[in-house]
Predict the structure.
Amino acid sequence: MLANFDFSVITGSLSYLFLDGMRFTLTLTALAAIGGIALGTLIAMMRLSGLPVIPLVAKTYVNLFRSLPLVLVIFWFYFLVPYLGQWVTGADRPMTVGAFTSSLVTFTLFEAAYFSEIMRAGIQSIPKGQAAAAQALGMTYWTSMRTVILPQVFRNMTPILLTQTIVLFQDTSLVYVLSITDFLGAASKVAQRDGRLVEMYLFAAVVYFAVCFVASLAVRRLQKKIAIIR
Amino acid sequence: MNYNWNWGIFFESSPEGTGTYADMLLSGLAWTIVTALCSWVIAFLLGSLIGVLRTLPNRAANAVGTTYVELFRNIPLLVQMFLWYFVLPEVLPESWGSWLKQLPNAPFYTAVVCLGFFTASRVAEQVRAGIQSLPRGQKMAGTALGLTVAQTYRHVLLPNAYRIILPPLTSEFLNNLKNTSVALTIGLLELTARARAMQEFSFQVFEAFTAATVLYVLINIVVIFISSWIERRVAIPGNR
């Protein structure tokens, strides 16, 4: 029962939970979001390009990642990244890759599939006339994308991109399957060390809830603020 | 890449002694599908209820619905899984707790309940969006015909709303199916867990994961196929 709820387990491990665990979680979230949005934008542009084959490649990438569970993808890359590293650097044995690098690669590539769908919707929502007008002004594809289309897309899509980042923040807890010390991993290690599962998991839930709830309220306010009245 | 490929591994018998590695993966696939279907029943019924609550002209009902959705959406699924599996039996009265712990197949029941409640919050959002996307006149017409609120929902609003939200519901179903893999952390022997076990027993990492990948992609294709069949089947003639 909750009668013997022991707060001292939580207070005693706060620095481990936040300085080790939460710092890992937040760093991973931020870097994977930036990488994912950059790569996702590129994939969205590939998918909407009129070139041969390339849209198909982008579509296959997105559909493949979207049909796999994240846990499986985490395992895939945990074993694959050392070989990829070997292939890229031309070394003669699989590279030793740290937990952080491995999960960063995983989350960037995985979330890029989801971010690319958001960016694709954003690019498609810009009237075609704008791209045509930019072309008529003599702009190249890249100039018109950079100066005309994408700035509007990012403005319109910021709330959705941020909401997806909140989902990403929650998803990073799955690195638990690799026994990495993210926030949940730290909580779980303390829980098992002290035999205090109830306190630690409830505390983890409260912290995740607080962060995500406040962040989603902030996104909603931002959405109202930056909405363009059409 | 200096990796020893061995695609014949699937036909070698697994150290569990219950068949080949292929059998092991297929039993994982079966658990994945059964867990996904059972939890979807909870998710669909509870999600519809919560979604309806959020659209009723009643403050208390709205508050209950909103609280539910915010609570279940803002906690990572893995944490929810741990709460159901490790925390719930401890905070319940002693006798209930020990009953829960002794339940055979506890990971399966826990995963079903956890995924059901988690996915319900997502289904609820879709149902709400579907109901709100209907013209206001439909509800009014229901009232004008003398239908009660419950009858209006049952015969007018929900049948239309479900047809509209069928595509997003399909992707929620697929998300739910993929989320069953999170239950490997509490010991459910579903597809990803079995692929991982195969990798540990046989050291054939990439064969095991490739097989799991192919199976997941296949289920996705089948589900999308079934969903578009349902969509054609339930389409209202002359509508579009």
